[in-house]
Amino acid sequence: MAPKDENSVKLFLSIGLDEKTATTTINNPKVTANLTAVIHEAGVTDGCDRTTGNLLYTVATKHHSNLRLHRPTLFDYIVSSKIKTPAQLDAAVSFFDKNSPEDFKLNEFEEACGVGVEVSAEDIEKAAEEVFEEHKSAILEQRYRTNVGQLLGHVRKSLPWADPKIVKDVIDRKMYELLGEKTAADNEKPTKKKEKKEKPAAKAEEKKAAVEATPEPSEEELNPYSIFPQPEQNLMVHTEVFYSDGSVLKCNNKKEVLDKHLKVTGGKVYTRFPPEPNGYLHIGHAKAMFVDFGLAKERGGCCYLRYDDTNPEAEKKEYINHIEEIVSWMGWEPFKITYTSDYFQELYDLAVELIRRGHAYVDHQNADEIKEYREKKMNSPWRDRPIEESLRLFDDMRRGKIEEGKATLRMKQDMQNDNCNMYDLIAYRIKFTPHPHAGDKWCIYPSYDFAHCTVDSLENITHSLCTLEFETRRASYYWLLHSLDLYMPYVWEYSRLNITNTVMSKRKLNYIVTNNHVDGWDDPRLLTLAGLRRRGVTPTAINAFVRGMGITRSDGSMIHVSRLEHHIREELNKTAPRTMVVLNPLKVVITNLESDKVIELDAKRWPDAQNDDPSAFYKVPFSRVVYIDQSDFRMKDSKDYYGLAPGKSVLLRYGFPIKCTNVVFADDNETIREIHAEYDPEKKTKPKGVLHWVAESSPGKEPIKVEVRLFEKLFNSENPAELNDDWLTDINPNSKVVVSDAYAVSILKDAAVGDRFQFERLGYFAVDKDSEPGKLVFNRTVTLRDSYGKGGK
After folding, report:
1. Which domain holds residue 173?
2. Digit-coded pLDDT (tens) for 349-370
3. How far is 261 from 267, CA to CA, in rounded Å?
4. pTM
C-alpha cells in the first residue's frame, strides 16, 4: 500500500470506520477525496467516536454534492452529538433541501430533526406497552400473523427519534411474552374468510383512510430501471479524466457517432451479461442478470450473453455449458450468445491502430518491474520507442517470435495520474496456450481492460452496467474508446451483493471446491446458483430477493442471509405441498387399537384446502404402531412444553389425541425403546400440543425410509473474508448433518428429483440428485422459522 493510501486508511480508522470499510474506501478516489474533505471540514482529524464517524461517512458518500452550503452547520451538530442517529441526519438533509441559507431558522431546524430529544429504553418500553394494550385483542386473535410493521409504526409515531432496532427488539419480546412459542397453526397459511358486507359509506371511509395511511412508493421502487437514461440521451459527458499535467479529458459521444449507433440499433436498449467462464455462477451473478437482462426486457431491448474469455488458462467448457444452462434456469433469454474471442481479429486491428496513433507501445519489463515502476509512478524505459518499432514488435508477438513473459503491449496513458487504473495498463500479453473457443490461432490475448470496453462498443451496447469496484476503471474505459474514436456506451456501476456467512470470491469458491471442503460447485451449502437450485430454491425466489435489494450505489453493506431465506419461504409457502416426515423416530404403540386395524385419514396438502377438492388431500394410515420424533417426548413435563410426556395427551396431526400410559426402556434403563399410549377415537380431549407422525401402513411393515440432509450456514462468522488468511478455520463443521433413517409418509415414494415439499413442523425440503430407487434423499431448503429483520440488513 502506498504511503498516501496508508495515511488515508489511518485517518478513516480514527473516525471509527472498520478496517474493511476503510480499505475499500481508498479504492475509490472520489469517495476518498470526499471523506477526507468532510473529516477536515468537521475538524475531527484527530479522531472521533464511531457514531459520529459513521454519520460523517454517510454525508461523504450519500449527501456529498447537495449539502455544500449547509455543511458547516450540519458538521457542528454532528460533532457535538446533537444529531446522532441516521434518522436525524435524514431529517436534517431533508430540511436543508427545502430551505436556503437565508431562510434558515435554528429553532425550526432543531425541531425538524429532533435535536435535544432523548428517547430512553423506558420510554420505548412504555410506548410499546400502550400499543400492545390498545391492540391486545387483535394480537391474541391473529397471533403471529399480526402485522408487526404496523405495531412498529404506532411506536415510532409517538417516538419518531427512537432507535428502530431497539423498538423492533422490544416488539419481538412482547410478542413472545404474550403469545409464547409459535405453534404449528401459526405457521399455516390462514383460510380466507368471507367479509361481511359493510355500508357503502363506512367502507368508503375505511378505504380512504387506508389510502392516506399508505405512503406512495417511489418511481424507483415501482420500476428499478427508471434511473437509466434512454439511448438517444447518450450525448452527455460520461466522465472526466484528470491528467497529471492539469489537463482534463471530457469523454462523450459526438452527434454523428451517436446517430450512426442509433441507426444500427433502431434506438433500442442493448445490454450484455459478460461472465468469465472460470467457475460456476453465484447469487451475485443473479443480481447482474437482473440488472442486465432485466433492463433490456423492461425497455423492449436486447441483452447479449457474452463470455469474457480472454484468459485461456482459466476457462473450461464445463463452465461455459453451466453458465448458458443456469441463465435459462433463472428465466432469462439472451438475444445472442457471443464470446470476446469472436472479436479477436477486430481487437488485434484496433490494437495496431492504437499503436499507430501513438497511444500504445511494446514493453519488455517483467511483472515485478512493472509493479515497481507503477508504485514509483515512473515511465517504462521503452515507453517512448518509435511507433514503427512497436508495430514490428507487436507483429512479432502475434507470430510467436517472442517468448512468453518477454513482452507486452501497454497503453500509453498517464503514469503520474492519481488513478492507478491510468498507469499504462497492459493491452496484450503472450500466452502459448490453446484457447477453448478460438483454438490455437492466437498466442497473444487481449486483457480485460482492453477488450471489455472495445467489445461493448463493437456490439453497440447502450448501457454497460457493472459493480462498483470497477468505478475507478471508468477513466481507462473511456480513455481507450476516445483514443480510438469509437462509440461510447453509458457506464453505470451498482453495489455488489454481499451476503453473510458465505464467500463469493471465485478464487475462494474454487479453493473450497477443489480441496473438497464442500461437495462440488453445486453443494447446497454454497450460494452458487447451482447449489441453491440443488437445495430447492426457486429462481422466482432469487429474483424476488434481488429485486428487493434494488439497483443502488450504496456499497459495503452486508445483507443478512435471513433476508434471502425470507423470500425463499414466501415462494415455497405458496408452491410446496405439505407432508409429514419423522427425522428421529420413536415408536409409539397404541394399546387400545386392534393390531390389524388401519384407519385411513385425510391429510392436507395445502393449509387452506377446501373439503370439496379431493386433490388437496392425501391419505395417511393410522395403525397400532406410529412414530413420533424423539424430540417430541420427555419424561418430565413442564408448563411451556407441548410435546408428549407420561400421563399427558397430544394431538396427532390430522388424527386423534393420544395419551402416554407407559414408557418401555432398553436394558440400560435409560434409552427409551418405545412408548405405550391410548388414542381417543371420539376426540373428546383437546390437547394444546400437535405433533407430526408416521405410521405403519400394515402390521409389521415399516414406513418408507428416507435420507434427510440438514444444512446450516457454511461459515460461523457473518463475514469470513474479514479473517483474511484464517478464513478456512471459520468453516462450520456442523454445516451438514445427515439423518439416514428418517420415516416418511407413503405419498413421498414417487417423488422425483427437484420436487419440493414442506415437511410439517420441520421446514421446506427438496429431492436431491443422489436419490436412488428405494432410497430418496431430501435436502433441507430452509427452516419454517423466519428470522428476517432480527439478524441484520
Report:
1. 121-181
2. 999 999 999 999 999 999 999 9
3. 8
4. 0.72
